[in-house]
Prior knowledge:
The chain has two domains: 333 residues, Metal-dependent hydrolases (TIM Barrel, Alpha-Beta Barrel); 201 residues, Immunoglobulin-like (Sandwich), CATH 2.60.40.1190. The chain is built from 15 helices and 26 strands. Strands 13, 14, 15, 16, 17, 18, 19, 20, 21, 22, 23, 24, 25 and 26 form a 14-stranded mixed sheet that branches. Strands 8-7-6-5-4-3-2-1-9-10 form a ten-stranded mixed sheet. It has a two-stranded antiparallel ribbon with strand order 11-12.
Amino acid sequence: MPAVKSFSVIIAAALIFLCTAIDGKADENSVALVREQTDRWRAERRLVDMHQHVEFTPERLARAVRIMDGAGIGVSVSLGSGAVTPGPNGEPSEFERARRMTDELHPGRFVHDMILDYRGWDDDDFAERAAKQIEEGRRLGAAGLKEFKRLGLFLRDKNNELIRPDDEKLDLVWAKCGELGMPVSIHVGDPKAFWEPFDETNERWAELKDHRNWWFGDPQKYPPRMEIVEALNRVIARHPRTTFVGVHFANNPEDLAWVDASLDKYPNMMADLAARVPELGRHDPAAVRELFVKHQDRILFGTDFQVYGRLILDSSGNEPPPTDFDALTFFDKHWRWLETQDRDWPHMTPIQGDWTISSIGLPPEVLRKIYFDNARKLLVRTLPAPVLKASRLEGDIEIDGDLSENAWRNATPASLEYALADSSAEPELSTEVRSLWSDEFLYFSFSCPFTKLTVFDTSSEDERLGLWERDVVEMFIGIDAEKPGRYAEFEVAPTNERLDVLVDLPEKDFGWESGFESAVNVDEASKRWIAEVRIPVASLAPAKISKGSHLRLNLFRSDVAGGAFLAWNPTLRNTTHVPERFGILELE
């Protein structure tokens, strides 16, 4: 089945990459295997771009989503969607307006970072009011806090002194972000060349001559670059409970040793790639690859893709505006740099400098962390609810544990592969789930890779209480839109033992009988077990079952031998019964 094939592709590619690393030879077959896997992820739009900026108008958002679809980006993290301060007459804040528009026009495609409103900086109570802004942002659904390069370069107090990143007045803000689980994406400093002479000898002159305000080489106005960067590191050290994402590769891509040492020293520090692949690609590719593999849990995919009156692909000047095709090429060059072993080719942002870059050819188990696993774990609290699309059946099908019917093959798959309580990825247990529906029944299929099955010693034809303590798949389906705590629970084990429960929290009716059916097929040779489930629509009343209906849904799988309890949408608690974490089943 595809879920098993997907992980086997990862293993095969990883082994070939290991051999390649040992003998130092580029292997076209290994690259092809990697691209097969990553192309599948992009087709499923699983990638998360941690660093985008889009103007919040219907036209700009539509263009951004169109390009994201073409590139295979599922979720955009909008960095800096506005402050949460209400308007002068109580109007919704800029952040609220931005989030409302994206949720209405493109649900599930954007999450938002708030920005801080620095008005009143010199007031005695600024620190407390700023911390309350963070609390309000959390209430309004902000994923995190974005801080632009204002600190240390632009913001000044009443005495015209620059406000530094490590100003103690901001400590309450950083601490509150940690308390509320809101990562801080922070930009300090800029490329080293922006502190060098402002003339044609500067390697980034093409960029600087069109952006005079990006030059910080006047020591009478600006501090040295590394002084600002080190100030941020002092903040990171002071707030170990707060996760800081150093954007633009920890704000210092020119110095790999410094980034490596900082990531070693500060476990609460992460780095995104945004707008710095051209700089990273200049280094020895073996050294960059080694750094990425070492810190694979701390690096996030991001691009600095921007949609305003014109597209901005990392950076821009007075050149003709890029087209949508240029944007897709821009994303393709990111894939080329991360996934292949090509050498000395033109990078994606020519205005940043006239040089070539060399690819780092990462293995797929590292790529999936950078592309989406790390982001999902970091943002799990605010990621959009997942959607599983159920395909319409023209006629009901037999339940026999065989998923070779075209209806199953053509149904849209979803992956069940994240830990229930903390959203850690378990790709070796990646379970493919599909759904179908008819006027009479709702169907689910599960394809479950395993190493060893853990079941009760003797099977029972009666319903088995405690089924969840062994290997099992579970479906929780909301049946009352007015009562989130009311839902139906269905469980199936590899022995085809079943359990159905009608839940009305905190009550659970174990005597309820839905009449659901299941069939199981265990294939020891391929180490995969299949569950095929058919649930009578009548048992889900008062839920409405018709084309276009949305039902609340969560899915789970226990694999005792693997020590894993997986959730389609992790509950972030040690229980499955968290209805506010349900996703959506959409009947097509």
